[in-house]
Amino acid sequence: MLRILGRSNSINVRKVLWTCHEIGLDYEREDWGRGVRPVADPEFLALNPFSMIPALVDGEVTLSESNAICRYLAAKHGRHDLLPADPAARAQIERWMDWQAADLNPAWSYAFHALSRNSPEYRDPARIADSVAAWKKQMAVLESQLGEGWARGDAFTLADIVLGVSVQRWLLTPFDKPALPKTEAYFERLRRRPAYQAHGGEGVA
């Protein structure tokens, strides 16, 4: 049985659970992370030395990093609709996934911890303002690239899963936001998917 280690309200765990639902995979999920079992536990570190959720165990395969897990699952199960086999088409999906992890997520990190989690160590007004400004800049990039379908046109892919959880975080974090009509319409399309309803919208943890 596929094992997924991580609390279900984590943004990165939700990506993986959403992917499993889209593919139709059975799995066992184990609570690890903030508020449950610590990721510094040697049992967890043996599976993921980066000490971050989620971790995946699939037989002899162990894997960490949520976007890598999503790619692995789609590729293993031949879901070329989610992750194309053609290198050029696949690269178009993966560039959005890399942008989400490398550019979008770091932009919102400080503001999210300050404004949504109310974390006491995130109280610097200047850093909050810088994070909000960076977040708005990255979301404007997404807004400029979206059409009337999915991130890559008519086909729903892994890019939409990883972007979807980040758009939800944008919408739920309390601060003044610019109007992003294409992004908001895109999110409404995502919300209608059964897999999003099961795993995409559990919160902003």
Shape category:
globular
- Judged by helices, strands and strand pairing, the structural class is alpha+beta
Number of domains: 2
Could you say what the CATH topology of the largest domain is called? Glutathione S-transferase Yfyf (Class Pi), Chain A, domain 2
What strand order characterises the main sheet?
2-1-3-4
Low-confidence stretches: none
Mean pLDDT: 95
State the share of residues found in helices, binned by percent: 40-55%
Strand elements, count: 4
| Cα gyration radius (Å) | 17 Å
End-to-end separation in angstroms reads 27 Å
Question: How would you portray this structure in words?
Answer:
The protein is α+β, with helices and mostly antiparallel strands and 205 residues long. The chain folds into 2 domains: 75 residues, Glutaredoxin (3-Layer(aba) Sandwich); 113 residues, Glutathione S-transferase Yfyf (Class Pi), Chain A, domain 2 (Up-down Bundle). The protein is 54% helix and 8% strand. It is built from 8 helices and 4 strands. The chain has a 4-stranded mixed beta sheet, covered by helices on one side. The radius of gyration is 17 Å and the shape is globular. It starts with a strand and ends in a 6-residue tail after the last helix. This is Glutathione S-transferase.
